[in-house]
Every structure is written in C-alpha cells, then in structure tokens.
Amino acid sequence: MAQKTALIVFAHQTPGSFNAAARDTAVQELSDQGYRVLVSDLYAMKFRADATRDDIKGELKNPELFEYGDETMFAWKENRLSDDITTEHQKMIEAELIIFQFPLYWFSVPAILKGWFDRVLTRGFAYSLAEMFNNHHFKGKKAMLSFTTGATQTMFQPDGINGDINIILWPLQNGILHFCGFQVLAPQIFYSPAHSPPAVRTSMLEGWRARLKGLMKEKPLSFAPIELFDLSFQAGFLLKPEVKKEQEQHEFGITTGHHLGKPLPPDNQTRAGSRK
C-alpha cells in the first residue's frame, strides 16, 4: 500500500508561536500514523503573495490585455507556470489531506496565505466551469482550516460582538475549499490562545492531537450539492424549481449561504451533519 501524504500550509511568522505548536503537533501525530507530511512554511519560503505576470514563463496569449486567470490557465496547460506554483501543485496532487494552519486576520487569512490561494489554485488545475464544487477531481481529497483567534469563543457567537463564526467561515470553506472540490472537514478553532493560561494552551494542543487520531474518519461539512442547481447561464445557475419547492418543508435553510430566507442551519460551517 502506498504511503499516505498530508500537506500543511503554514502561515505564521514566528517559530515560537502557538500556530507553530499546532503545526508541529499535526506533523508529529500524522507522522506517527504513517503519513508522509509535507509542510509549506510560507513565510520561511518567502512565498510571493501577489499574482502577477511573473507567474508565467514565456509569451502571453494576449499581451495587450493581461487577464491573470486566462493566462495562468494556458501556462498550466503548457507547463509554463513559475516554479514556486508548480511545486505547490505537486504537493497538492500527492496529498490526500491538506491542513491550512494560520491566525485569523481581519475575519480571514493572512495576506501570504490569500496569495497562496490566488496563485496556486490555478484555473484549470483547481477549478473550471465544468469542474467545480463536488464535481471536481479534488473530491477525493480532504481539506480543513486550523486557526487561532484573538477573540474569545463567546465573541464569535450569533449574539457576540464579532457575529456568527459560521458566517465568517463561509467564504473560505465554501468559496475556496468546497468550490475546488475538496471534502471540507470541520475547522479546528483555537480560541484566544494568547489570552489563555499555559495549562489551557496545553489542553488545546492535546485536544488537537486527539482529534487528529480519527480525523480521516470524520464526516465532512454539509454543502449544497451542485446537482441541486440548473447549471446554465440561461437559468442563472439557480436552484432548480423542484428543489426550492421541496425545501419549503424544512425549518432551516440548506446551508449558511443557501439559507433561502430561513434561519441558518446551526453550526453549518463548524460541525458536520448539523442541518435538521
């Protein structure tokens, strides 16, 4: 049997950080399980965040009007992408599990990680109009977010000052990971480790290690399958009429994003199988 491979995309500047400790915990536990663990330490790699002409070797298809998505797609097909992108592509191809480890910045990811998404998830390689959401060859792979917050858990509740963490996570988990076809595992959220005593931080890491032991057996988060939609420009890529009709009997919307004017399904982006 071939050795399993996991990729950790790490975005923190400091080796002594809690994020680094979470990364190291994952590396050790997954290695103990027999995984070959790859780590993309973006700051150590000085990974370039800006998506530019430099990502393409050779001539452009349309030099008069540079369109990054089109040009990188052509370059991917012709093996003309910059070496740092193709290296990350190969890691993604080899990995059946990808963990993104980072601190939450401005309700999102650090710029260097956003740049990784922008540059590495190349059109054609990671998605297309014909291959997106659960209709992509990445659907056999699992991905998840593991991150720290500066705020406490109560601040990310529906009645907390920051608002519902499920809404905050929707663009990342649906708009990036699920869009590219991954089975998205529930996020590992370390709430406010910087303001927690050492014993609590230790407990957080122990909980992460325990979860990693059964991680690949977890049920993924629930998203609206692409089959529920009319996939045509004429129909506007909307839910099929019969699907909308059937949903009328449900108490909650389908997902955090596809709420259909109903209450949001509780914990849709933080817990698998949460819809009632």
TrEMBL record:
How it assembles, according to the record, is: Homodimer.
Entry similarity comment: Belongs to the NAD(P)H dehydrogenase (quinone) family.
**One Pfam assignment:** Flavodoxin_2
Chief localization: cytoplasm
Task: From the Swiss-Prot or TrEMBL record, state where the protein is found.
Answer: Cytoplasm
The cofactors required by this protein are: Zn(2+); FAD
Looking at the record, the residues that make up the Flavodoxin-like fold domain are 5-211
Q: What is this protein called?
A: Ribosyldihydronicotinamide dehydrogenase [quinone]
Q: What does the protein in this record do? A: The enzyme apparently serves as a quinone reductase in connection with conjugation reactions of hydroquinones involved in detoxification pathways as well as in biosynthetic processes such as the vitamin K-dependent gamma-carboxylation of glutamate residues in prothrombin synthesis.
What processes in GO biological process is this protein linked to?
A: cellular response to xenobiotic stimulus
Region annotated Disordered sits at 254-276
Q: Where is the composition biased (Polar residues)?
A: 267-276
List, alphabetically, the GO terms of the cellular component aspect: cytosol
A GO molecular function assigned to this protein is: NAD(P)H dehydrogenase (quinone) activity
Please provide the record's keywords in A-Z order. Answer: Cytoplasm, FAD, Flavoprotein, Metal-binding, Oxidoreductase, Phosphoprotein, Zinc
Which reaction is this enzyme known to catalyze?
Answer: 1-(beta-D-ribofuranosyl)-1,4-dihydronicotinamide + a quinone + H(+) = beta-nicotinamide D-riboside + a quinol
Which EC numbers characterise this protein's activity in its record? 1.10.5.1
Q: Which SUPFAM superfamilies match?
A: Flavoproteins
